[in-house]
């Protein structure tokens, strides 16, 4: 696994903060964020085309909009990856 750190939320304490990585081997984005509460999970489920429960191996996380530049950087890195 070629996990490459992209960045963390610039406005947090740099200890327990949302983070973005790129798994260059798998060609995937990896996010650490705040866990969604039951209300947000229910809202996501009600607006999803699948409209089913969130599987136990998946999660809804929140990332602040100020992380958009980091997410773009991660997307660019995945697009440049030879494994797309």
Residues in helix, %: 25-40%
Mean pLDDT: 86
| Global structural class | alpha+beta
Shape: globular
Radius of gyration: 14 Å
Major β-sheet strand ordering: 1-2-3
Q: In total, how many beta strands? A: 5
What's the end-to-end separation, in Å? Answer: 15 Å
Low-pLDDT parts are none
Secondary-structure element order, N to C: EEEEHEH
DSSP summary: helix tally: 2
What's the quaternary structure here?
single chain
Keywords:
two-stranded antiparallel sheet; 84 residues; three-stranded antiparallel β-sheet; 27% helix; alpha+beta
SSE inventory with pairings:
Elements (H helix, E strand, L loop, with lengths): L2 E6 L10 E5 L4 E5 L1 E2 L2 H10 L13 E2 L5 H13 L4
Antiparallel strand pairs: 1-2, 2-3, 4-5
